[in-house]
Hints:
Blueprint: E1 4-9, H1 15-29, H2 34-37, E2 46-52, E3 55-62, E4 67-73, H3 82-96, E5 101-107, H4 111-116, E6 120-121, E7 126-128, E8 131-139
InterPro entries: Acyl_CoA_acyltransferase, Bact_Acetyltransf, GNAT_dom
Organism: Pseudomonas vanderleydeniana
Keywords: Acyltransferase, Transferase
Amino acid sequence: MNRIHVRVADWQKDNAEIRRIRESVFIAEQAVPPELEWDAEDATAVHFLAYEGDFPIGTARLLPDGQIGRVSVLRDWRGLKVGDALLQAVIGEAEKRGLRQQMLSAQVQATAFYERHGFSIVSEEFLEAGIPHVDMVRGAA
């Protein structure tokens, strides 16, 4: 395991890397239709890239309303705290921007991960792109 670091990404400049990671995780692995993966909110979101050394291995985004999404880590780097580093960076940036509450829709199998970071389930289970999800919230309303 090399050094993991996370930085705020530029949607225009880092687009190919962000797309490579999300296409691998969501479209190839989880069979999310491309038309559901890519949306107009990417243009206004704050994007993040996680690196091992200088190789991008994970990504996430933060919307202006505090919604966190598209948290994804390439298969070979899962279980190595990359997701923790990504989520901590996103939460830190949200708080820096005055977004005291963060929300996300979590795949049901990932809820324990988000709960470790202070998120609580606030909805019943629902399907999104055919995958069971729940809504989760962290912080003050």
